[in-house]
Write a structure and sequence with these properties.
Blueprint lengths: L1 H10 L6 H8 L3 H13 L3 E5 L3 E6 L6 H7 L9 E7 L2 H10 L7 E11 L5 E4 L5 E7 L11 H17 L4 E3 L3 E4 L2 E13 L2 E11 L17 H5 L5 H22 L6 H7 L6 E6 L2 E10 L5 E5 L4 E4 L3 E4 L7
Parallel strand pairs: 3-4
Antiparallel strand pairs: 1-2, 4-5, 4-6, 6-10, 7-8, 8-9, 9-10, 11-12, 11-15, 12-13, 13-14
Helix pairs in contact: 1-4, 2-3, 6-8
């Protein structure tokens, strides 16, 4: 009930009467009054005026279930929502939920993550009230060899949502790092469970440096945050909800063909590698070339100095001007 009342208050341009809330949700005035008081106790500033009703005047920096549900406008992504004050890893949490039968689209969001995982097993810790740590469960009818493209889909959703909410110039470094002015603000970790050549489920974990103001010395030169780039705190709940809307749209388009065919153009508009010099580091093989976008399988197309085109499926790709590559 709290989420529904909060959503109604957000959508109202002015005051909304208690009677209207009663009729809309089929509850008593007492139930509405209790819901309003619960919201006040959670930090929402709600003005009550006799003969006018209620009006939302301010809200806390919260990523609670109430806050997110009141702002989530999706069909399936994030509809089964789990909000955690603290967790070791949202990916591990969702994997456990997946094994217990959680439905497609289940989303876990944590205010504090103590044991998050970055690339190559690196730790990623999110301090209370500063970053965004979330993982979504999907159960696609998809060949296992195509699962890796989900990281590209997730990266696109991060870039679109951050740009939409903050107005910052956000780009993607292939395959899924989201960067601003050459520094990383987000990454994605995808984990899959499969058997007999079929996908059981995929968990897509996303971390975004939202209101983080300090970084460990070893990553200060390559990482940044939205608050540092924008110069003011950002609305984490707005970004999470916008991310779910974007992810749902991109995921559905991806699943039409089971590849990047319908997303290729959108992805390349965000690609910081596009037509830039890159250095490809593969085991036992290193070369430079010009990135020419991606193919329908999400592979990076690199034009080598001799004019030949190489498809990069995996491996380190350094982009000139990104992460101190000069």
């Amino acid at each position: 009930m709290k989420s529904e009342i909060l959503s109604a208050l957000r959508q109202s341009e002015g005051y909304i009467s208690g009677q209207e809330l009663c009729e809309r949700f089929g509850v008593s005035r007492t139930a509405v009054w209790k819901g309003i008081n619960q919201l006040k106790n959670e930090g929402y500033q709600i003005e009550a005026v006799q003969n006018k009703g209620y009006r939302l005047c301010g809200y806390p920096d919260s990523i609670s279930k109430t806050e997110l549900e009141s702002r989530m406008h999706t069909r399936w992504a994030g509809k089964n929502l789990i909000c955690l004050d603290s967790v070791d890893s949202t990916n591990d949490y969702i994997k456990k939920m997946a094994e217990e039968g959680a439905p497609h689209g289940t989303l876990a969001v944590a205010d504090y993550q103590s044991g998050g995982k970055g690339r190559r097993g690196r730790a990623w810790v999110t301090p209370h009230g500063s970053a965004i740590a979330m993982s979504i469960l999907v159960r696609p009818q998809l060949a296992p060899e195509k699962a890796s493209m989900m990281t590209l889909v997730a990266g696109m959703a991060v870039a679109k949502s951050v740009k939409e909410v903050t107005g910052l110039d956000v780009k993607i470094k292939w395959p899924n790092d989201v960067v601003i002015r050459g520094k990383k603000i987000s990454g994605t970790l995808t984990e899959m469970s499969m058997e007999l050549g079929a996908i059981h489920y995929i968990v897509i974990g996303t971390g975004i440096n939202a209101n983080v103001t300090e970084f460990p010395e070893e990553i200060q030169d390559i990482a940044t945050s939205l608050i540092l780039e924008k110069g003011e705190k950002v609305d984490r709940a707005a970004i999470i909800c916008a991310h779910m809307e974007a992810f749902e749209d991109f995921y559905d388009r991806f699943m039409e063909y089971g590849d990047m065919t319908l997303l290729r153009g959108d992805y390349q508009e965000l690609l910081v590698n596009q037509n830039q010099q890159v250095r490809v580091l593969e085991p036992g093989n290193e070369y430079t070339g010009i990135a020419r976008g991606i193919d329908e399988l999400g592979q990076l197309l690199v034009e080598k100095e001799d004019g030949s085109m190489v498809k990069v499926y995996a491996g380190e790709v350094s982009v000139r001007g990104i992460y101190n590559y000069v």
